[in-house]
């Protein structure tokens, strides 16, 4: 049986220590501020990105990983004797998955499998990490793909933003709705449904975000002693610590991972995003 190489993309927001530990290849999306281009997590880390975002008069944009980047990475792995599983962030918000499929078609190899998680940030990342962990312990491709499918079907996202400004800038929210939300101090709680961002709930005021997120997680199927929970934040790590303490107290997960929201997702959410990822059931 050939060893298995796991390739992901920077939509997964996997902490660097886990990327190294499990020998995961992460291909970066591109961030643009005007004429300046940066590779997510390589040329610009989250701290640098959020500092730039706060002071820039330009609205940043993002672009997918190009097919050529996947082609080179996959070809290298195949030449080194690996089977390859490419695990992408949701095709509902990025063309990166399509790029990976194009690379696979060009290579025309049965040793390459491409997966659309329909998830974002560490909801995608936990799937990538689990697949890489299984690959390191010698699990078969079928075992890994079965586990990926199980996690895809159970992965859930709950996240909120402090300000609606970045959603407005990125065209995700009308100026009128953003203005009303600011006046009323409304904080949206969002999720991912069928691979796309959807409104789920809202609260009045920042202090109600964490309690409501915990309530929603319980309603949507999180269990005490669950196998894994991921937490993420932008430039608001002190709030993340509060969420972490509440999550440990409420759910006592077997594994808890905290991470930074990367530059790509941060482009559309702003610096004050707070997110909770877990597997239902």
From TrEMBL:
Pfam families: DegV (PF02645)
Key word rRNA-binding present: no
Gene3D superfamilies linked to this entry: 3.30.1180.10, 3.40.50.10170
InterPro entries per record: DegV (IPR003797), DegV_C (IPR043168), DegV_domain_contain (IPR050270)
Entry keywords, A to Z: Lipid-binding
Entry superkingdom: Bacteria
MF term (GO), any: lipid binding
Keyword rRNA processing: no
PANTHER family associated with the record: DEGV DOMAIN-CONTAINING PROTEIN DR_1986-RELATED, FATTY ACID-BINDING PROTEIN TM_1468
Protein's name according to its UniProt entry: DegV family protein with EDD domain
Organism per entry: Anaerosolibacter carboniphilus
């Amino acid at each position: 049986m050939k060893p298995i190489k796991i390739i992901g993309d920077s939509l997964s927001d996997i902490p660097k220590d886990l990327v190294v530990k499990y020998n995961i290849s992460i291909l970066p999306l591109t961030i643009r501020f005007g004429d300046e281009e940066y590779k997510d997590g390589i040329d610009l880390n989250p701290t640098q990105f959020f500092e730039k975002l706060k002071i820039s008069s330009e609205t940043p944009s993002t672009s997918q990983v190009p097919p050529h980047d996947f082609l080179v990475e996959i070809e290298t792995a195949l030449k080194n004797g690996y089977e390859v599983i490419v695990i992408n962030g949701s095709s509902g918000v990025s063309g990166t998955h399509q790029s990976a499929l194009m690379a696979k078609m060009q290579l025309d190899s049965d040793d390459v499998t491409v997966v659309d998680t329909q998830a974002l940030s560490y909801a995608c990342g936990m799937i990538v990490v689990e697949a890489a962990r299984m690959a390191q312990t010698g699990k078969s491709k079928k075992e890994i793909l079965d586990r990926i499918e199980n996690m895809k079907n159970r992965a859930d996202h709950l996240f909120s933003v402090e300000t609606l400004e970045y959603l407005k800038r990125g065209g995700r929210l009308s100026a009128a709705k953003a203005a009303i939300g600011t006046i009323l101090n409304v904080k949206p709680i969002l999720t991912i449904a069928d691979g796309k961002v959807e409104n789920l709930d809202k609260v009045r005021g920042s202090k109600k975000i964490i309690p409501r997120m915990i309530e929603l997680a319980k309603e949507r199927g999180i269990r005490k002693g669950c196998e894994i929970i991921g937490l993420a934040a932008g430039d608001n790590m002190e709030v993340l610590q509060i969420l972490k303490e509440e999550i440990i107290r409420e759910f006592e997960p077997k594994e808890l991972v905290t991470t930074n929201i990367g530059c790509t997702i941060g482009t559309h959410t702003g610096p004050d995003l707070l997110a909770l990822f877990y597997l239902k059931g």
